[in-house]
Design brief:
Radius of gyration: 23 Å
Shape: globular
CATH class of one domain: Alpha Beta
Distance between the termini: 13 Å
Strand content: 15-25%
Number of helices: 16
CATH topology of one domain: Uridine Diphospho-n-acetylenolpyruvylglucosamine Reductase, domain 3
CATH architecture of one domain: 2-Layer Sandwich
Structural class: alpha+beta
Strand order of the largest sheet: 15-12-14-13-17-18-16
Helix content: 25-40%
Number of strands: 18
């Protein structure tokens, strides 16, 4: 818990301006608004000020000043998070430290397949910098034009290529971090082998700014694939989708990059609410799979693998229909159907989002059992299920707008609906947060589903690295 400030607010803001320049300390309500507003409209913070340092030295100086003044710090990148992690939870007790001005690509080494990028670089800028040297940075998110690499690391973001390349954690070789004491840890050597004690970067990846502030990172690059095959497959059930996933893994091996499950409800929402989208198949189907293979061999090799895969599918009678993209434009159309689901849901009305993971082999049973429990406990609730089936991550969202609680007074309220789903996730050996983090939204779930031993260890780390409690208070723990 923070003690009383040692500086007046006026003196504190004056000192911040001396570090960053006056125009980069925003204290007027109209200037702070865009930083204080959670993008989905669920919460509005009230920061003491928004501070925008331009380099690591300024970040360190601001942190030291906040430690001296007992002012909390809420680190913020692109403010695209989904669990209220980058918004102050208490009024006028914290600054928002925005990394937007830390936006330089410091170095790109094509021989080492590495890049050093500052925390405020957008994911799209990092992807482009890799493309410029014929390399690939494979992290891919719907918000890549506005989310930042510091935020991606801080939340250990996932995305659509985890099946092949892993989470953001797997794409990082080193970090530069400002600690809660205002000291700088710099491990930007980019070594793939460094077996000298604790791997300190892992403490900060996924910590959501509660232990320190990431200011730069060494990112792992990959060769650009020579060919890509993108397909949309219609299936009758998640059970058939699981069999196809097994078959695709056997046929394509590590070239299998994406395996997305899309329910028919999702497709209907997209076609209804997103202009420019179109139905791929003559009729609607219960589920679709967006499958992508990326290969480093010539196109003829990839197409031969694909033909063999098609024959296996037909022999096993696993699909209702299928389409292989014949052009980049058609592949983009397939992807638009998938990437537009969240926007379509938002246009359709309020919905309960659940970013969960369960063991891949148990996904069909989870969907069937949880759907049946919801139908019985909350008649009229609509399940909007989609996600990264290849790595076990589903977005098991629920629309309860059509639930008539006058007709069904025993129907679960929204809080109880989420509790039912997360209890099911726990029973299936899964996680209540697969790729979005914990933030302020899921702290109660941490207490419900994490063991006391796990929580005690996390609290010990927090106490050791941030004894004054100034780093993003009210988040995770």
């Amino acid at each position: 818990m923070l003690s009383a400030p040692h500086l007046s607010v006026a003196d504190f803001l004056h000192a911040c301006k001396a570090i960053t320049g006056e125009q980069y300390v925003l204290s007027a309500a109209e200037d702070k608004q865009v930083f204080e507003s959670e993008w989905r409209g669920r919460m509005r913070g009230d920061a003491l000020a928004v501070v925008l340092p331009s380099d690591t030295a300024q970040v360190a100086a601001i942190v030291k000043l906040c430690r001296k003044a007992n002012i909390a710090i809420v680190p913020q990148g692109g403010n695209t998070g989904l669990v209220l992690g980058s918004i102050p939870t208490a009024p006028q007790t914290a600054i928002i430290l925005s990394t937007r001005r830390l936006n330089r690509i410091r170095a790109v080494d094509a021989d080492s397949n590495t890049m050093i990028a500052e925390a405020g670089c957008t994911l799209a800028a990092v992807q482009q910098a890799a493309t410029d040297v014929d390399r690939l940075f494979p992290l891919s998110l719907a918000s890549e034009g506005s989310c930042t690499i510091g935020g991606n690391l801080s939340t250990n973001a996932g995305g659509t290529a985890v099946l092949r390349y892993g989470n953001t954690r797997d794409l990082c070789l080193g970090l530069e971090v400002v600690t809660a004491d205002g000291e700088v840890i710099s491990q930007l050597h980019g070594l793939r082998k460094d077996n000298t004690g604790y791997d300190l970067k892992q403490w900060f990846i996924g910590a959501e700014g509660t232990l320190g502030i990431i200011t730069a990172a060494v990112l792992k690059l990959h060769p650009q694939p020579r060919t890509r095959c993108t397909a949309l497959l219609a299936v009758s059930s998640p059970e058939n989708a699981l069999q196809i996933l097994r078959l695709a893994g056997t046929c394509f091996g590590p070239a299998l990059t994406t395996f997305e499950l899309i329910s028919g409800v999702c497709t209907e929402l997209v076609l209804q609410h997103i202009p420019g989208t179109r139905q791929v198949f003559p009729q609607q189907h219960p589920y679709q799979i967006l499958l992508e293979v990326s290969d480093f061999h010539p196109a003829s090799h990839t197409l031969a693998l694909w033909e063999n895969f098609e024959q296996e599918l037909m022999q096993a009678d696993l699909i209702l229909d299928g389409a292989l993209a014949g052009s980049v434009a058609q592949a983009n159309d397939f992807w638009k159907l998938r990437e537009s689901i969240s926007e379509a849901q938002a246009k359709a009305g309020r919905n309960l989002k659940h970013d969960i993971s369960v063991p891949v082999g148990r996904i069909p049973a989870f969907i069937a059992e949880t759907g049946a429990l919801l139908a019985a406990a909350c008649p009229g609730a609509q399940v909007v299920c989609f996600g990264h089936m290849g790595d076990g991550n589903l977005h098991f969202n629920v629309n309860t707008q059509q639930v008539d609680r006058q007709v069904n007074p025993e129907a679960l309220d929204d809080t109880a609906v989420s509790r039912l789903i997360h209890d099911q996730v726990h029973r299936f050996g899964g996680s209540f947060s697969a790729e979005h983090g914990v933030g302020a939204m899921k702290r109660d779930d941490m207490l419900r589903y994490k063991s006391e031993t796990e929580l005690s260890m996390m609290r010990a780390v927090k106490q050791a690295l941030d004894p004054a409690g100034i780093m993003n208070p009210g988040k995770i723990l």
